[in-house]
Amino acid sequence: MVADQRSSASQLMSNSMAVSVGVASLKKVNRCAARSSATPVSTLFSTGKLPQTALFNSVTPVTGNTALDHQLAIPANPVFALGFGPSNLITNDYRLSYVLDAVANPDGAVPTPQAGVPLAAAPANTLRQDLKTNDLRNWTPQSPMLLCGGDQDPTVFFSVNTGTMQAFWSALPAGLVTVLDVNGTVNPSSPFAPLQVGFQTTLAGLLASGGQEAVVANYHTTVAPFCTVAARGFFSQF
């Protein structure tokens, strides 16, 4: 739950950097956008003020660079493909400006993690500049820290967020940073094993009752209470 939010935002702009946007994430964006309005979110959707799922245009940008155009195309994953449509929130011009800056001024976390996962040295895009300012890779914990999440979370991508910070802090003293994937392989001797079993049982129940759509829609909010309990138990040791 403590992670590099800059990396998540960079994922919103290109495919391997990564353009993949889940339905749950899009709904979260829309809820945040609507909080300052007295108009119900359902009305904003029905009147076309906000797209329900389309963050990007279904007519994707063409740069002439075959590899880059492939990454900008609609993802094959049907969940992430819902993030594209004709009445989209982010224009192609802005999306492309972000992606081209990410290519010219790459970040060490995406698309392929580099040794030390360094920050982008000099991003020109103003959003990337702000995200760099708010990045956790300019800080080192001095007290024990727990990083907790689920590796299939469509809202906060575990590998890019938690994985980035785990790699960045890998040289710190053993025990200073603990990582928990509630959806990971259960180690019976781990103090977190009951929580992992509980989370995975809950997911199985969602799948049985509502199918994969229910799992995707509820995954992120299902992670939160299990990580909260994990954090309480973790910090009670100190």
Summarize the structure.
By secondary structure, the protein is mainly alpha-helical. The protein is built from nine helices and four strands.
Quick tags:
238 residues, 2 domains, two-stranded parallel sheet, 6% strand, disordered N terminus
Classify the secondary structure makeup into a structural class. mainly alpha
Share in β-strands: 5-15%
- The amount of helix comes to 40-55%
* DSSP helical segment count: 9
Number of E-type strands: 4
> Can you write the helix and strand succession as a string?
HHHEHHEHHEHEH
The geometry reads as globular
| Cα distance spanning the termini | 20 Å
Task: Identify low-pLDDT runs.
Answer: 1-34
Largest sheet: 2 strands, parallel
Number of domains: 2
Largest sheet: spatial strand order: 1-2
* Computed CA radius of gyration, to the nearest angstrom: 19 Å
Mean pLDDT level: 86
3D architecture notes:
This protein has 2 domains: 5-136, no CATH class; 141-235, no CATH class. The two termini are 20 Å apart. Strand 3 (145-149), helix 8 (158-168) and strand 4 (177-181) form a beta-alpha-beta unit. Helix content is 47%, strand content 6%. The chain has a two-stranded parallel sheet. The chain has 238 residues and is mainly alpha-helical. The chain is built from 9 helices and 4 strands, in the order H-H-H-E-H-H-E-H-H-E-H-E-H. The model is unreliable at 1-34 (pLDDT under 50). The longest helix is centred in the last third of the chain and has 43 residues, at 193-235. The radius of gyration is 19 Å and the shape is globular. The chain has helices spanning 5-11, 23-34, 41-46, 66-72, 78-81, 92-104, 126-133, 158-168, 193-235, and strands at residues 56-57, 84-85, 145-149, 177-181.
